[in-house]
Amino acid sequence: MNSTDRQPTVTEPLSRRTAMAGLLGTALGSAFGYDQFLRIEEPAFAASIEFDAADVTIETNCGIVTEAVVAEESTITVDYANVPDSVLTDGYQFQFTLEANPHVDGRADRAFAGWSEPNDHAPADLGAVLDGMDGDGSASDPYVITTDHELQAIAAALDAHYELGNNINATQTGAWNDGSGFDPLTDTDADEAFEGTLTGNGHRICGLTIDGDDDGVGLIGVNAGTVDHVGLIHGDVQGPNAVGTIAGLNIGTIDRSYALDCAVQGTELVGGLVGANVREEGETEQGHIDRSYAECSVTGDRFTGGFVGLNVADTRDAYARGTIDGDAVVGGFAGANALGEGEDAGLIGSLLELVIGVLDGLLSLVGLGGDDIEETGVISDAYATVAVPDHDNAAGFVAVNETDRTCLLFLCIGGDPGDLERTYWDTDASGTAVGLIEADGDEDLDGLSTGELQGAAASANTALDFTDTWTTVTDPDDYPHLLDTPIPHDRGTTPSGGSTTFEPLVDAHTVPATDLLDPADLPHGTLTPSFTDLNIDTVSLSSHSAIDSDFTHLEPTADAARIDTTIEFTLTVELGTATETIATATAGPATATLTVDVD
User: Fold this and answer.
1) Under a CB-based contact definition with an 8 Å cutoff, are residues 589 and 570 in contact?
2) Do 81 and 202 fall within a single domain?
3) DSSP state of 476
4) Tell me, what's the pLDDT at 101?
5) Which parts of the chain sit beneath pLDDT 70?
6) Sign of CA dihedral 428, 433, 439, 442
7) Cα 383–Cα 16–Cα 595 angle in degrees, nearest 5
8) One domain, residues 525 and 402
9) How far, in whole angstroms, is CA 567 from its chain's centroid?
10) Calpha distance 221→192 (Å, rounded)
11) Which InterPro entries does this entry report, sorted A to Z (predicted)?
């Protein structure tokens, strides 16, 4: 994605976001009104109108219901009586109007309080924005972020404390700064990384667009602080090197955070959540990523991973989904878990110097250099289901897991491996039976089929902690999910208070009576037209301002097996001409229950 025009909608799959259900509604209809001048018995629609929709799809984008679609194969059955022969010769038409009213009873606790309004320009004075925010930036009274401008204002005080006060709609950031978008929260000119805290409170940042020119690209360019409970959805992040969604380079802590339906693109060190996760030699407090996940489309040249491009620190309890593309050192979870190229990686020349060159400049922001960082990392309790490219330099989980080693005859020096503990990859979804390009047999890495890694089978086939950290996902079966983090897909919508009537799904769509009525059936009979018969290409509700302010995402918790969302449909059928109506019947409400699967 290169602009906000390409922001995907959450189709709940509500991965990208779709909810489906069967709909069968029957309601009483009444006939009223007829033209006295026709001198005929009153036309009437019979006591029932049946509306049978095969599928109903609800789509949302950044908390707003953008579309409700009824399948074209849906049918409408109308019983009628006392219809005169003249309707076939005097230009009478049927007019169909369909409205929908979604609501979720007793689900207010599952909906966030709303989203901010996006700004179509970058803030002119970050200091002034910061001064106008609630809080003073201290640990006890953090600045409260409620808009995209306030999110950008973090750059004015990179060592302060912040928290999100609501969901942030950042879908207009692609138009900021002459198209380069949001500025990563790092001051490369002043050699200053983010060293504060950013607590998301479980809120989301939607539609963030960054097209950076400097190395270290993400919401935070270089993170030496703490990011907790922050989610990025529908983001588009591009840059040269060290590119990720939450952070380009992490030497701090990232906990319970995620990136969903994001596109990430760069050259070296590219990851779905973080470009590179590193720590200084001998340090234990740096470079932690815990209880987080990424479901993104990731593209890079080298050192590219579905979750992290390079890990030479600590990554625990995490997973990666989505797709990945790259030329060398490409892994479904991590490109590399060590600063080495791998003896059999099929690389030409050393990539190590390229990577160290990138890291040197970024680590100077926190007083380090490439020679000061650890050479191997730890990845534990993690899995990847990422589709990887079909070439020798790509692996289902991690491509490189050892430092360079030198061999002379039968003597080899070096080659310290990274630690892989309780790690897994889906051999079906990844498209490869190779989880690690060069394996020495000590890595705790297992390839499992989709069936073995999904549903209740996951607890039997993995050693993940399903008591305190992970949960299996069933009905339908899906991959394990982390407790205490939002689900990876939105699959429902709810108004933030009461029910709201949509504008018509089918608004005054007219069909000549001669196209539907059979003269042999007059004066009474049954119509059973489908939406296709009515020549309606798409029966849908596009985004309307009337509902934007009232709707938010439905956020099921991980322990909920399913959420039922009800949509009531009202169908009105009229018979008449352009100037007169001789009969009207309304069926409604017909009720559809959308089953929202939590995964």
Assistant:
1) yes
2) no
3) T
4) 60
5) 1-42, 46-74, 100-114, 341-351, 404-415, 438-442, 487-508, 536-569, 587-599
6) positive
7) 100
8) no
9) 23
10) 10
11) TAT_signal
Distance, CA of 50 to chain centre: 36
Specify whether the CB–CB gap between 565 and 507 falls below 8 A: no
Q: Domain range for residue 524? A: 4-108+495-597
Task: Report whether 180 contacts 212 (CB < 8 A).
Answer: yes
**What backbone torsions phi and psi does residue 178 show, to the nearest 5 degrees?**
55, 35
Instruction: For residue 181, give the 3-state DSSP assignment.
Output: strand
What is the spatial distance between Cα 454 and Cα 220, in angstroms, rounded to a whole number?
Answer: 33
Quote the pLDDT of residue 80.
86
DSSP character at residue 408: E
Q: Which residues have a Cβ under 8 Å from the Cβ of 455 and sit 6 or more positions away?
A: 472, 473, 474, 476, 477, 478
Q: Which amino acid is at 343?
A: E
Same domain, 121 and 94: no
Short-list 473, 387, 492, CA closest to 431: 387
Per-residue pLDDT at 104: 38
Distances (CA, A) of 190 to 178, 181, 198, 242: 22, 20, 21, 19
Task: Mention every residue, 6+ apart, whose C-beta is less than 8 A from residue 181.
Answer: 173, 174, 208, 209, 210, 211, 236
Q: Is residue 467 part of a domain?
A: no
Contact between 426 and 396 under an 8 Å Cβ cutoff? The reply is yes
Question: 98-135 b/e with 16+ CB inside 10 Å = b?
Answer: bbbbbebeebeebbbebbbebbeebbeebeebbeebeb
417 close to 396: Cβ distance less than 8 angstroms? no
3-class DSSP string for 513-553: HHHHCCHHHCCCEEECCECCCCCCCCEEECCCHHHHCCEEE
Residue 477 lies in a domain: no
Beta bridge mates, 313: none
The one-letter code for the residue type at 148 is D
Residues 215 and 79 in one domain: no
- Provide CB contacts within 8 A for 348, sequence distance 6+: none
Residue 371 CB coordination number (10 Å): 10
Domain tally for the chain? Answer: 2
Asked if residue 358 and residue 216 are part of one domain, the reply reads: yes
End-to-end CA distance of the chain: 25
Same domain (yes/no): 324, 186? yes
CA distance 593 to 595: 6
Residue 472 falls inside a structural domain: no
What pLDDT shows up at residue 69?
Answer: 59
Placement of tokens 């930036």 in the chain: 137
Q: Where are the beta strands (DSSP E) in 332-477?
A: 334-336, 378-384, 394-395, 398-400, 405-408, 411-414, 419-426, 445-448, 470-473
